[in-house]
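Hi Y.,

Following your request, here is the sequence exactly as I used it, all 59 residues.
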Amino acid sequence: MAVPKRKTTPSKRNMRRSHDALESTNWVEDAHSGEAKRRHHIDLKTGMYKGRQVLDVKE
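Below is the corresponding structure, written out as tokens. Let me know if you'd prefer a different format.
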């Protein structure tokens, strides 16, 4: 069975765990509809992105 040769220091342990933190998604209010949407994502209801029509919306 593999056994560590040295004890892992708290600094190294915490540096490894720094990537385990949960990130919250950033929601903003849409300028046209007022609904919440994710930043830098296409609004799937209207097909708009950065003030221009990107997708054709199905009726």
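The radius of gyration is 22 Å.

Thanks again,
Q.
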